[in-house]
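so my prof wants the structure for this chain in the tokens format not the other one, which i didnt know existed until like an hour ago. anyway here's the sequence
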Amino acid sequence: MDTELLESARQAGYTTKVLFISTEDSNLNAGRILVRMSHGGQAVPLCTIPESYQEAMKSLPEARRHADDLLVYDNTPNGKGHRLVARFIAGELVKTTNTSPAWLKNVFGRELFCEAKPQEISPRTR
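here's what i got, hopefully its the right format
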């Protein structure tokens, strides 16, 4: 995640919105990539997937600090689409699901067990 780019955009007066979509583990991602590749989709070196997954998880808290609006989605269930599991506005947790996925709990820990603070969305973060 390029946090410098996010900060530059914010300082220039832009509203920054980050959409973060993940699954429960990198093995699931690798499996889905293999299926796509078998149907003619883009090839990805499978050995890079676990490291990319870990880097994405490490960057998520940074994205929270640098984005005006951070929407976090879980895409673990195959074929069912993604679901919004958390939203942060100006770094504050304003929405979370009752059933947060384990990977999200691993990133944000206890904070998810606290009630999200209702917050009015400013025109800048819409």
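also thought this was worth mentioning. The radius of gyration is 16 Å.
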